[in-house]
Structure formats: C-alpha cells, structure tokens
Amino acid sequence: MGHSAAVWSDRASLELTEDSNGIKHALLRSPRGASARVSLYGGHVVSWKNNRGEELLFTSSKAALNNHPKTMRGGISICFPQVGNSGLLEQQGFARNKNWTIEENPPPLHPKDSLGKSFVDLLLRSSEEDIKCWPNCFEFRLRVSLSVDGNLVLISRIRNINGKPFSFSFAYHTYLSVSDISEVRIEGLETLEYLDNLCGRECFTEQCDAITFESEVDRVYLNSPKYIAVLDHERKRTYVLRKDGLPDVVVWNPWEKKSKTMADIGDDGYKHMVCVDGAAIEKNITLKQGEEWTGRMELVAVPSSFCTDPLDPRLKFL
Ligand SMILES: O=P(O)(O)OC[C@H]1O[C@@H](O)[C@H](O)[C@@H](O)[C@@H]1O
C-alpha cells in the first residue's frame, strides 16, 4: 500500500489511501478500534478487522491484491449482474472488475444506517463498454459501513435508469476467515432446499442439523431465514450474517482437489476459508424503469460463548 492521503471529509474515521497501482481504498475505523478497507476497484471489501485487530475475512496468501485488473481472491466481492458462470457474462458479473467512484451526497438512506457509523458511499454507473455486453443502464450505489462495535454493513441499491425492464442476479461473495474448515458448522440452513452446483444445479433438501465440511461444497440454499450463524469451534468465534432482500445463501468451499486447480488460493487456503454469500440467485430481480432494489447484509463476529440466537440481547444488530 502506498502513501496515505489526508482525511478527506469531516468523518474523522474515513481515510482515502492509494496503492502503488493508483487504486484508491477507503479505510473505515470504528472508535473502538475495528476497521474495514474497501477498494474502489470493484467496491471490494478487502479487509475487516475486529477491535483486537484480528482479520475476519479470508484473503489468500497468493491473492493478487496489486495485480490490477484481476479481482483479489478473498474479502467480499460484489457479484452483479450475474452470479457464478451460468450466464453469458464473465464469472460473477462485471461490477467487481470496474472502477467505482466515491459519491459525496447519495440519495439518503434511513438515519440508522449513518448514525454513529463510519461509512463510505460508492457509485457505479453502466459504461458504454458494459452496455455492449449487458445492454441496460443502471446506477449501483454501495454503502459500506462499520458500526461502533465493529459490525460490517453493506447496502446495495440498484436502480433501473433504462427505458425497459432488466433482470439480474446478485451476491455478496463473502470469504470468512476460519481456523480450520473441519471445525466449522453453519446453522440456519437446515431443512432448506438447495441447488447443488456440483450436480448440475439439481435441487435437494438439506437433511443435516447443521452444515459441516469434509469435501467440496458448492450450493445455493433457497428462501433462507434472515439470520445465518457460522461457528468456528477452534477459534471460539461465531459470525452472524443478517440479511434483507437476499433470499438465497451460497455456501462454497473448494476443498483440496479443486484448490490445486486454482492458481491463487494457496495450498492450504481452503482450510482457512468458507464462503457464505447473501444472494439473490434462484429468482432474478426484475426492475422496471425508475425502480430500485435494495440488498442489505450485516456481519457480526462474536465470541462463541455468545448465544447464536439473534434475539440474544448481547448480539447488537443495527
Ligand atoms: O473465483 P470466485 O469468483 O471467488 O468464485 C469462486 C466460487 O464462488 C462460489 O460462490 C461459486 O458457487 C463457485 O462455483 C465458484 O467457483
């Protein structure tokens, strides 16, 4: 990372920095010491640290952070207007491979999305190049914010400024850092139907009490609840994911064999990550001219001694 620019607004906890490739990053800090870093290349959240400075997102040791224009493996990337490789566009859509700009005065959000938080507002507008491969005009507003307690919140607002309706799929492709994938369980997806990407997207019903990992997993869970918990027993940490407007959840771990075919995950990388993506995939979102869609995801990391019940008063969602 290159030089750090001065604080650029009166929000003391937001700094703009620039790396050696000229890519700008927004650095958010909470008053209690948590932080998050967002690259304006892709609107990609490349780091989220708790109050103790521990990194909560996985980033591959071989991640091509500086290898512009390649998306870094890890963090949270924005998949739009396509998720995965099931459409005509590049894998996970083009939004994560575009330069976003900072928007100083976006259309207002609910006051609770600003109060006490450090945040940055990014904007992506369809370019002539995008329109050649996806002939639709849109405005995509992304707010990334950090609460006083260090919760990470992403709010996406996608507006159709076309003359005609368009449809898209969407995901917050989220690489969580875990101690050892064999020690991880995911709660909240039991009994749900899922599309198995490893079986040609065939639909199955989840039979287990919780999702655990002992081989490659690549699934889209459908119509999931608002809260999903990812428990890391060894690290005694639980991530709670709360989402709105995002009915589906992608769960992915490539395991050993697939990892070996991937250039940028590192030999043991798969052991230390799990992707749990808040998403809208099964049913495309369709917007008519002038309509706007909002998809919100909040991530909280708490010691596992906390109850994972979202109604636990110690678990503060904002
Ligand atoms: O390489 P990326 O963009 O991080 O995506 C990796 C994986 O992401 C998952 O969400 C998909 O379901 C997988 O099929 C895909 O391979």
From TrEMBL:
Family in the record: Belongs to the glucose-6-phosphate 1-epimerase family.
Q: Name one GO molecular function term.
A: carbohydrate binding
GO BP, one annotated term: carbohydrate metabolic process
UniProt keyword terms in alphabetical order: Isomerase
User: Which InterPro entries did the record assign?
Assistant: Aldose_1/G6P_1-epimerase (IPR008183), G6P_1-epimerase (IPR025532), Gal_mutarotase_sf_dom (IPR011013), GH-type_carb-bd (IPR014718)
Q: Which reaction does it catalyse?
A: alpha-D-glucose 6-phosphate = beta-D-glucose 6-phosphate
Key word Iron present: no
Q: Which Gene3D superfamilies match?
A: 2.70.98.10
Gene Ontology CC terms: cytoplasm
Q: Where does substrate bind?
A: 73, 91, 96
What is the E.C. number? 5.1.3.15
Any idea what this protein is called?
glucose-6-phosphate 1-epimerase
> Which top-level enzyme class is recorded in the Swiss-Prot or TrEMBL entry?
isomerase
